[in-house]
Write a structure and sequence with these properties.
Chain lengths: 290, 160
Amino acid sequence: MKAPRFSYVRPASLTEALNLLAEKGPEARLLAGGQSLLAALAFRLSDPQVLIDISKLPELTGVTRVGDKIRIGAGTTHSALGRDALIASAVPLIAQAIPHIAHPAIRNRGTIGGSLAYADPAAELPACVVALEADLVARSKTGERRIKAADFFTGLFSTALEPGEILTALEVPVASASDRCALVEVARRSGDYAMAGVALKATLAGDRIIAIRPVFFGLGDAPVLAHGAAQALTGGPPTGERIAAAKAALATDLDPPGDQHGGPEMKRHLAGVVLERAIARMTNSEARAA
Amino acid sequence: MSEMIDIALTVNGEQVRARVEARRHLIDFLRLDLGLMGSHIGCEHGVCGACTVRVDGDIVRGCLVLAASLDGARVDTIEGISDTGEIRDLQDAFIARNAAQCGFCTPGMLMAAADLLKHQPQASREEIREHMSGNYCRCTGYQAIVDAVETTAKARAAKA
Ligand SMILES: Cc1cc2nc3c(=O)[nH]c(=O)nc-3n(C[C@H](O)[C@H](O)[C@H](O)COP(=O)(O)OP(=O)(O)OC[C@H]3O[C@@H](n4cnc5c(N)ncnc54)[C@H](O)[C@@H]3O)c2cc1C
Ligand code: FES
Ligand code: FES
């Protein structure tokens, strides 16, 4: 279908974009890569009056190291993240996620900020930033604030962003030599949104897990941090017994709604499968995080 | 801020100036405004890949790019990369392997395959399948397409 009528503006700076957003209020929508928004408009799922194109804003792109954090501009495309050497070495969980996101032609336009702001419950990057305990940086006309990733995703396609705010960047701790990570998902076809997936980050001491954050996607309204499974895995090496206990804990950690892929029971089963595979991948030396 | 936007861009090496409706996507712009019918529209929401074209050297879904956002951009379509001879060997391999039946998906397939051959000239069969997995074909069953891309990759490697 054709999108409804709207007008379009491409501000030259972040300040100009913020002013426009404040002035136009709820009639305006930000356009980043357009890979979710333009598809939604083709379905006429929303009817904005004006699109404010932030995809070319220099303030929003790039990956830099700032102290012990990696700062990722919200406008950085999936493709750019996938070939970034700093991401590969310091934020390997995101590097692992990229090939699972759609297809090359979509990754060339879609941005990490767009993915986080859109907050699709089956998307990879929201789960990654929760696992990585990233801070998300939101800017409005009146100032800037940092939102913890765990507080950012408030429900189905909804976030803690306020009207008038633009997500400008995220800040992720640099992976240390004792960190491990893995992202595993099950999808019907390569590039599809996941039926079920998990992004996890762990800190090891020898072969003992001393901390772990398994965050599931496609299994709730938003990314779900599985506290029970984390507890079952913490304190020793990931033995068969511990993994079985972690999988059992998912029964209370997760309450997946059924969707077009299948009912809650199938989703629960897949959650156990991806968790077990992710732990295997994480302990494999190739998955070393640093 | 307007529903009609003026743009100046390069399409297949030629300068183009146009006034477009803000909501016009790149494929309608190419087909309806410029008469370049090689890029196809299938699903019109990002799923099928029939609309694959290049913007500033990278492949994109033309149905998910607004023409209005392309002021200053360089666009290359199947017409352009056919005329330059860049994919002559790939096109010959498609014919030899019978990789086009109805032909609807073919321009998008060629754009996606050309992108792979450029960035991953050593791609394995598995990598070819992965790279092309966003382009749907309702006729060939894909094997012939993968064969054609693989043949081209091997022939180019042998020449290099
Ligand atoms: C066929 C297809 C398959 C896909 N498969 C996957 C997949 O498997 N996994 C996956 O994760 N994604 C998938 N995607 C979506 C893709 O990753 C998008 O790139 C992403 O969801 C949105 O990013 P964008 O930059 O295109 O945002 P846009 O589409 O431009 O914007 C999305 C929303 O976010 C808002 N927004 C954008 N940037 C900001 C910002 N900086 N601050 C505040 N609000 C902002 C917009 O106003 C809009 O509401 C798929 C898309 C398609 C078309
Ligand atoms: S027409 Fe663009 S992806 Fe189908
Ligand atoms: S040849 Fe008919 S869709 Fe591919």
